[in-house]
Amino acid sequence: GAGVSQSPSNKVTEKGKDVELRCDPISGHTALYWYRQSLGQGLEFLIYFQGNSAPDKSGLPSDRFSAERTGGSVSTLTIQRTQQEDSAVYLCASSLGTELEAFFGQGTRLTVV
Amino acid sequence: QKEVEQDPGPLSVPEGAIVSLNCTYSNSAFQYFMWYRQYSRKGPELLMYTYSSGNKEDGRFTAQVDKSSKYISLFIRDSQPSDSATYLCAMKRPGAGNMLTFGGGTRLMVKP
After folding, report:
1. Which of A41, A48, A101 shows the shortest C-beta gap to B46?
2. B37 contacts B85 by C-beta, under 8 angstroms
3. SS3 for B92?
């Protein structure tokens, strides 16, 4: 596609439910990143993929968070047993290589009620 | 204390003003410095990218890095209402790919 696509754009979920967020990177981009942006905060790094593998998972806030990437393309970020503090905008970015410019999607706005 | 500090604003200026946005950081390992612009309900877009200390100019935008003071700046000349957005500084260590450490962002409003 022309840019990084994320779905859904908005998600409201009840506390305790699981959610899946999807990222479709720019075609051919091998590196993919997930960030979280809480209200009034900067972006917080969560995880990145080089191909299908995730060399660095250190940013994931807890074991309720997991992510996978298949076929070197689409990635899903899963949050289990959501909590209110998980409410944030989840942003995905992709780049042609790990040292080249990353392009961001518009994000998924998650609200846990 | 956060690794990267940025005044959240909001910063309100009249059209045509020179805008100065700043960040300070604590990690001397950061070598690459970036400024992103983020419009409401959009993802960040890269504005400026600099390596180590010095200045870089691109049109109305100038990025400045002072590693000795751990201080970076973005100057916007002849500011326009379309510059109204949140500006995020970001930085990274060598070999860290796009694992960026962001400041909290400064909201800028340019009034016609």
Report:
1. A101
2. yes
3. strand
CA distance A60 to A52: 17
How far the first Cα of chain A sits from its last, in Å, is: 33
For an interface test with B, which of A24, A43, A96, A99 has the most B Cβ atoms less than 10 Å from its Cβ? A43
Q: In whole angstroms, give the CA distance from residue B21 to residue B17.
A: 13
Residue A106 carries which side chain, given as an amino acid letter? Q
> Among candidates A79, A102, A97, A84, which has minimal Cα distance to A22?
A79
Which chain B residue is nearest to residue A95, measuring alpha carbons? B98
pLDDT tens digits for range A26-70: 999 999 999 999 986 789 999 999 999 998 888 999 999 999 999
CB burial string A68-86: b at 16+ within 10 A, e below: ebeebbebebebeebeeeb
Q: Which residues contact B59 (CB under 8 A, 6 or more apart)?
A: none
Report whether pLDDT(B92) > 80: yes
Structure tokens at A113: 């009620």
Closest among B40, B28, B48 to B90, alpha carbons compared: B48
> To the nearest whole angstrom, how far is the Cα of B17 from the nearest Cα of chain A?
25
Alpha carbon distances (Å) from B65 to A14, A18, B53, B84: 45, 43, 5, 23
The SS3 call for residue A101 is: coil
* Residue B102 with chain A: CB contacts under 8 Å: 35, 42-44
Q: Which residues of A touch B4 (CB under 8 A)?
A: 42
**Cα gap B2→B24, rounded to integer Å:** 10
